[in-house]
Amino acid sequence: MSASEPGRLIMDVETVTGLLREAEEHHGPYEANAPKHHWSGFYAAYIVARDEGRSEEEADQEARRHMDEVLAKQEAGG
To answer: Is residue 56 included in any domain, yes or no?
Structure first.
């Protein structure tokens, strides 16, 4: 990864591929019990958390929290 500007990293294809596969592995168990949602929100939150140095488990929890917020907003009409 290389910094293109402060706070913004550019990842190579191999890194993104690995993170997408990790996100997929963690999304499966989440999706089995979650309300209807689009997978992209979980994947994006997971990948950002991993990029920020979180472990797989921490990234999973952050992705779940993100989706809880997104789904709560949708439910509230926002």
So the answer is: yes
Q: 67: helix, coil or strand?
A: helix
Task: List the Cα angle 48/31/72 in 5-degree steps.
Answer: 70
Tell me: the pLDDT tens digits for 28-69?
999 999 999 999 999 999 999 999 999 999 999 999 999 999
Q: Could you tell me if residue 37 is inside a domain?
A: yes
Predicted structure pTM score? 0.83
For residue 64, give Cα distances in angstroms to 9, 45, 68: 23, 8, 6
Q: How far is CA 23 from CA 17, 58, 65, 67, 68, in A?
A: 10, 12, 14, 13, 16
Number of domains in the chain: 1
In a domain, 4, yes or no: no
